[in-house]
Please model this.
Amino acid sequence: MDKIKSPQQRLKLIIHVTGTNGKGSTIAFLNSILSEAGFKVGVYTSPHLISFTERIAINHTPILEEEVAEGLTYIRENIPEGLNLTYFEVTTALAFHYFAQKKVDLTLLEVGLGGRLDATNVVNSQISVITNIDYDHTDWLGDSLAKIAFEKAGIIKKNSEVITGVASGEALSVIERRALEMKSSLYLVNKDIKYRVEKSNTIWGEDFKYQNLELGLMGKHQTANAALALMAVELLRKKGVNISEEEIKRGLKKAKWLGRAQVISENPTILLDGAHNPGGAKALRELIEERYFQRPRIMIIGILKDKDVSGIIKELLGKDELVQVILCEPDCERALFTSEIRKEVLKYISEENVQEIKEIKKALNLAKDKATKDHLICVTDFFIPWLKSLIR
Model:
């Protein structure tokens, strides 16, 4: 970053977000609230679903392709030959350069992988958010929750503030220890900030209480992500950032996150969701049971080789007589063969309700042919880029 004049040091307020699931949703809530409050908000997330420009945005507007080209030219001209940077390192440098150039008021950063060694971790963030800790990317982050928590807690900076949805166990102990070492204040969901899901959502803490909240993102689990976002907002307010209760409520209601629990058509309902690990699969299944109870379902599923196929299928399906499954293969080298996924699916679903069709377009056409207007067709994470013509 020194070679491009350390643009990250010119960013004012930074909220750095890591965790196994919920990072994008928490950032979506924060971005929506802060945008409603009139701030210029730099948002860096990954991966993108359809276009690279989604990764780098100000408020809800992605960087232009010509701005990408200009930024990459500047980086290339200032980086010495022989310095081999990864794709993510270059993208991160581009985001910092762009946000500094545009003089954003606040920056929301999503960690790419883990946290401690992530390219985003060169920032001196005032607030860190660790959404939760679960098993994912174990080849890189470790095979225990404590090891994974150690990597993610690496984003905590000295004399900063930390918010986490991790409630107990070895993962929380690791986060508490890191916060203590860094002399940082730690705020816990269900202790410092609480929430209740009834007919309407209520989120409260020691100095605040918000009732009758409407969330723009579907699923009961989103209340937990909204609680994390609201705690961050309350900490910003204590720093003198002016955000009203009405702006908070409007922001929560307007929050959107492309391809995450997103309904793209009705009759039949087609739902896209980015679940790619057991925790995400569980949240998706709970959402389906909550919103689409007793409706017949067709699941279009594809999984990558480095994912926990057994855990994902177990959480996603369970014993469910209303489900039909179409197995596909994402169009990439990491795709797991449908025959391997089938072995896991048949533990829960009878053979006559499982089909293998490798191409996603053919699978979706088959699902539509099978479906009545009452059906739910659910398409999982790895096929969303290939359905871009359907996404709005």
